[in-house]
Amino acid sequence: MVEKKEAQLRLETADELFLIIPPEEEVSELATPNMSTIDFINKLIFTNLLNEAIRYLAIALPRREAIWWASATNRLLQKNDKMAERDKAAWKLVEDWVYNPSEEIRAEALKIAEGLGFETPGSYGAMGVFWSGGSMVPPETGQFVPPPATLTGSAIGASVIMNCALGDPQHLSTRQRSALEIGLDVAYGGNGLSRVLIQK
User: Which terminus of the chain, N or C, has fewer Cβ atoms within 10 Å?
Assistant: First the structure.
C-alpha cells in the first residue's frame, strides 16, 4: 500500500490563513468550517482565484520552502530581458541561502533588495530571505527585533505574483498555474523543478 503524503504547511486551516490575510467576500465564501489549508488553496485554484491562491500558499509554506518556491518559479519563468539581468544577483543569493541559511547571506539580502529599489521579483525574494529570521535592526544598535513570522510569506507571494506578471498577458493564468504547481509540489516534499511550462 502506498502511503499518502500530507502537505507540509505552517498553517493547517483556512481560518488560520484568514487571521493573516483577511479574505475578500468571494474568497471567504469558498471556505467551510475547519477547512484544511490545502483543500482551500485547491478550491481557489479550481475557481480561478489564482493570485489569492499564490498569496495564501506563500504564507502557509514553511519559510525556507516558500523561499525555494520563489526561486524555482523564477527558474522556469526567467526571461532574457533587462529585469532578469537586474535580478541575477538577487536570485543567486536566494538560492545560496536555501542551501546555506547563514546570517551573513541573510544580511546581504537586504542590501540587494534595496539596490533593486524593491521593484523586481528578485528583490522580494531577497526580502523573503532577510525576513526569514534574525533581527531586523543592525547589530550595532544593541537591539534584537525579530521579524513577524508572516513577512517572509508576504514577500514571497509578491515575488511569485510579480514573476508571473512578466510576459504575454494572454498566458498570465498559465504562468500562475505553473507557479502554483511548483508551490504545491514543494509543499508535498518535491523540488518543483520537474514542472513544465506550456507558455512563458
Answer: N
List the one residue out of 125, 51, 114, 52 whose CA is nearest residue 84. 125
pLDDT tens-digit series, residues 138-197: 888 888 998 998 999 999 999 999 999 988 899 999 999 999 999 999 999 998 887 544
The β-bridge partners of 36 are 13
Angle at 162 between CA 159 and CA 168, to 5 degrees: 145
* pTM strictly above 0.85: yes
Cell numbers that stand for 127 in this block: 526580502
Range of the domain at 149: 80-167
SS3 label, residue 36: strand
Separation in Å, CA 42 to CA 33, 39, 90, 178, 195: 16, 5, 30, 13, 17
* 3-state secondary structure (DSSP) of residue 13: strand
Task: Specify if 106 maps to a domain.
Answer: yes
Q: Which residues contact 105 (CB under 8 A, 6 or more apart)?
A: 93, 96, 97, 129
Q: Which residue has the cell 481557489?
A: 44
CA distances from 144 to 138, 140, 141, 173 (A): 8, 10, 8, 41
Give the CA dihedral 40, 44, 47, 48, nearest 10 degrees.
-160
